[in-house]
Structures are given as C-alpha cells and as structure tokens.
C-alpha cells in the first residue's frame, strides 16, 4: 500500500492569481472525495510572506467531513498555536531546512533557532493530540553552497527521531535529488527507525520524476507527497520553480507496479477537471 499526501497548498501558495476562498474550498472538497490519506490543505503562516494562504482558517471552516486527514504547514510557534486550535487539523507540518541559507530565507531563523521551535511545537502537538510532520528541506542538497552530504541528512533524521517526531519527510526542495542519493538515505533510515514513518516530498522536472519515486519505493518509502498536474514548488526557494510530482504520474507508477492506493478513480477524474479550472486562469 502506498500512502499519497495530496498537496494543493503547495500548488496554490505560489500561484500568481489570488484564488478566492470559496474556490479553494470547492477544490479541496473535491479532493476530499478522492480518498487520499492526507490533504496538505493550507498553512498558518504570515499573510505577508504567503498572501495566498491568508484565508486558511476560512477555507478550513468550509471543508466537508471526510476520513482524509488534514495537514497544515506552520513556520513558527505562533502558527502552530493557531493550527492546534482547530479540531479538524490532524497534522502540523514544519519545513526544517538543513541549509542554513535557506532556513534564514524561508523562516527568518537559523537552524539552531528552528530546532528550538521544533521542540516547542512538538510539545504543543502532544498536548493537543496532533502529530508533527518534519520536512527535512534541502534534504538532498542545496544550490547555495551550504555544506551537504547524506550524512548531514541522516544526522538530522536521528535528532528528530530522538524527539519522538512520528513522521519525517525528506524534501527535495529544488529538485536536485538523484536516485543514488535517494536510495542511500531511505535504505538506511527506514530499517533504522521502525517507529518513524518516512516520506518523500519530491520536486522534479517532468523527465526525472519516475526514477525518484522508484528509488524511494524500492528502498522502503511508502509515503509520497504529490500534487495534481505537478503544480507548485516552494516560492522561497528560487526564481524558477521546479514543480511537484504530479499525482496522476504517481498513480500511473502504482498501476505499473500493481500497488494499491485505495483511491476513488471517478472522484479523482472530477478533481482533475476542477484543478484545470482553478489553475487554468
């Protein structure tokens, strides 16, 4: 079984047209009918930093009941305090870059300061019966010349596992991951920490997505982030965004490998049509 985390938040956050809350809500409700394990639906971050996400609380209030769990991205303790106040939010996602340059650029915090934030947010999650998802951003390298090796990523995964973080997702923020690097990390992490769920959040060019998914799957990863049409990427990373893995490509991969996803094909087709409407302007 492969677990798909659909990421409309990642698709919408850098979109040039301001998408009205009502339109976001309708699209998210279409996605909830598909049966994804989790929907990365919004973020509790500064509206100045990400204007597109300023209406996350309003959008959340309009979402239908669903077995799909909701994940909200937070960038600091203040955002986490907002997120844990919403009963419908199951997961808080925190992007933790192991590139000092990018962590300052993305969250205006050093790596050391961000680690303190993680500890506080983890305490908030436990107290409020939420689960924290740590994204190890720039997990496969960075374009800024900051030190990187697989050992650096492994060391940070070890530190987060020691904090009892239940889910750690390795994020290829700028699309630089190669199959050998992906294999090196997942082949070590998955057996070493059976109590942790490891995921993959890949950004990729249209030509390289399959080899990335295959390398992660073949080395034990069973949790994958994707977005319909491959839209999105991190607006704080660089000027030329590298898109997400397209959900339809991930489903094709699953079909080729005989992997069960448990998704409703008819609802997915309807969500694809709606995505074309939302992102076709």
Automatic annotation (TrEMBL):
Belongs to the HMG-CoA lyase family. This is Hydroxymethylglutaryl-CoA lyase. The keyword Magnesium does not apply. Pfam families: HMGL-like. It comes from the Bacteria. Keywords: Lyase, Metal-binding. InterPro entries: Aldolase_TIM, HMGL, PYR_CT. CDD domains: DRE_TIM_HMGL (cd07938). Residues 1-269 form the Pyruvate carboxyltransferase domain. GO terms for molecular function: lyase activity.
């Amino acid at each position: 079984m492969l677990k798909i985390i659909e990421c409309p938040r990642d698709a919408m956050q850098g979109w040039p047209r301001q998408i009205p809350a009502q339109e976001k809500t309708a699209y998210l409700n279409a996605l909830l009918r598909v049966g994804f394990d989790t929907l990365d639906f919004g973020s509790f971050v500064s509206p100045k930093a990400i204007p597109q996400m300023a209406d996350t609380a309003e959008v959340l209030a309009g979402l239908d009941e669903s077995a799909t769990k909701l994940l909200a991205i937070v960038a600091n303790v203040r955002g986490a305090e907002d997120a844990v106040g919403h009963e419908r939010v199951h997961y808080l996602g925190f992007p933790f870059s192991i590139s000092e340059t990018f962590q300052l650029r993305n969250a205006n915090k050093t790596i050391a300061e961000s680690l303190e934030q993680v500890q506080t947010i983890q305490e908030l999650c436990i107290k409020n019966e939420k689960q924290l998802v740590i994204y190890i951003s720039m997990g496969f390298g960075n374009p800024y010349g900051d030190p990187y090796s697989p050992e650096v990523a492994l060391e940070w995964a070890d530190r987060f596992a020691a904090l009892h973080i239940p889910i750690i997702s390795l994020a290829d923020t700028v699309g630089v991951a190669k199959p050998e690097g992906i294999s090196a990390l997942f082949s070590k992490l998955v057996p070493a920490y059976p109590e942790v769920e490891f995921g993959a959040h890949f950004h990729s060019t249209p030509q390289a997505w399959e080899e990335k998914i295959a390398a992660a799957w073949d080395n034990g990863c069973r949790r994958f982030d994707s977005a319909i049409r491959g839209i999105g990427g991190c607006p704080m990373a660089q000027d030329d965004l590298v898109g997400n893995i397209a959900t339809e490509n991930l489903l094709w991969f699953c079909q080729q490998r005989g992997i069960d996803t448990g998704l409703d094909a008819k609802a997915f087709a309807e969500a694809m049509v709606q995505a074309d409407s939302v992102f076709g302007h």
